[in-house]
Amino acid sequence: MRDGEQTRLVAWSRELRGVHERLREALRVTREALAGGEAAGPATRDLLLFCHGFCAALTAHHEGEDRGLFPAIAAEHPELRDTLSRLRQDHSMIGHLLGALSAAVARDAPPAELGRHLEGVAAIMESHFRYEERQLLTVLETLALDADPAVVLGPL
C-alpha cells in the first residue's frame, strides 16, 4: 500500500447476508404483486416491473459473485473449489429459471403459470442462499478482498 492509500475493510459475511435479505424482500414484493393482480392490464405491467427489477438484481448479484467473490475465495481456500463450482451451477440454473419467468411475464401468461415460475425461482434461490451461507459465511469473516461490495455482490 502506498502513502495516502487506504485499504477498505469489508465485513463480507455481513454484506452477503444483507444482499440475500434484500433479494428475499424483492421476491416477497414480487409475489405480492402477482397475488394481487390479474393476467392483463395494469396488474401485469406492475408485475413486469417487479419481475424485471428482481430478475436484474438477482442476476447482477450472481454475476458479481462469479466474477469477484468466488475467485478471491478460491485463491485463499482451494479446498472450497468444489463448493464454488456447485454454487456457479446454481447460478446458471437460477438464470435459466429467471429467463423463463421473464418470458412468461412478457407474454402475459396466466397468473397460475406466473406463480409456478416464481415459486420455482423462489425454491431454488432459497436453497442456494442457505447452502451458500452455510458453506461460506465463516470464510467470509476473514476474506481479504479490497473491493466495492456493490461490484462484488450486486448493486443492492
Features of this protein?
mainly alpha; disordered N terminus; single chain; 156 residues
Tell me the layout of helices and strands:
Layout: H1 12-35, H2 42-76, H3 81-106, H4 111-140, H5 149-153
Helix pairs in contact: 1-2, 1-4, 2-3, 3-4
Overview of the molecule:
The chain is mainly alpha-helical. About 75% of the residues lie in helices and about 0% in strands. The protein contains five helices and no strands. The chain has helices at about 10-35, 40-75, 80-105, 110-140, 150-155. It is elongated and about 50 Å long. The two termini are about 30 Å apart. Residues about 1-5 have low confidence and may be disordered.
Please report the total strand number as a whole number: 0
Q: Kindly report the average pLDDT value.
A: 86
Computed over alpha carbons, the radius of gyration is 17 Å
Low-confidence stretches: 1-7
Gap between N and C termini, in Å? Answer: 29 Å
Main sheet makeup = none
Alpha-beta content class: mainly alpha
Alpha plus pi helix count: 5
Proportion of beta-strand residues? under 5%
Q: What is the general shape?
A: elongated
Helix content: over 70%
SSE sequence, one letter per element: HHHHH
Kindly summarize this structure in a few lines.
The protein is mainly α. It is built from five helices and no strands.
